[in-house]
Design goal:
Length: 192
């Protein structure tokens, strides 16, 4: 991890490996490449995220923390029914862009947690319950698809002084040789 003198940490760009349809194996990673900024003092304003609820698509999941692996990739949940919050960024509800990732596709004949993420639309609600029981509501503002090699710096940063929560999963075609999907689906949300 690279730490700048002013308390800024490594920025993660968006390259998420996902599990293929009906597979019990696969690699999952969100690669870190650029720098983003957030203030350490903002970290104390809300509790750690504990649960993610998206009523429109039936998501109700525990939230685990995810940092970076040794090769600079964001850790992701091993359990396809869980989601992972990137804990080197802001907490959901703090100023900036918090990021939560989850698996896509079918694993062991069950849909992964973000299988239906693409069904969300503008104005749908996303709720985060923190460790203190506080529920923070976010509203979907945009859904965007990125190519796996496309610059996704806007997913992990914002400069508007508001709180955002961005949900990330895979989409597109599965490349069997590389064990990776061709695209990333990002749902951008704004704190209500």
């Amino acid at each position: 991890m690279i730490v700048a003198p002013s308390g800024f940490v490594l920025f993660a760009a968006l390259f998420l490996y996902c599990i293929p349809k009906n597979s019990t194996q696969g690699s999952s990673a969100l690669f870190a490449e650029d720098i983003f900024a957030f203030s350490n003092q903002e970290q104390a304003s809300v509790g750690l995220p504990a649960r993610l609820n998206i009523p429109m698509i039936g998501v109700d999941s525990a939230v685990i923390s995810a940092g970076l692996t040794f090769d600079g990739a964001m850790e992701v949940p091993k359990d396809p029914a869980e989601v992972a919050w990137f804990d080197l960024g802001p907490r959901p509800g703090e100023i900036g862009s918090a990021v939560i990732s989850g698996h896509y596709d079918w694993i062991k004949n069950k849909p992964a947690i973000f299988y239906d993420l693409h069904k969300l639309s503008a104005s749908d609600k996303v709720h985060i319950k923190d460790e203190n029981g506080l529920v923070i509501t976010f509203v979907v503002s945009e859904i965007r698809i990125y190519g796996k090699d496309e610059d996704a710096s806007g997913v992990f940063s914002s400069s508007d002084g508001k709180a955002h929560l961005n949900l990330v999963t895979c989409t597109g075609a599965w490349n069997k040789a590389e064990k990776i999907y061709s695209e990333r689906l990002v749902v951008f949300t704004d704190k209500e």
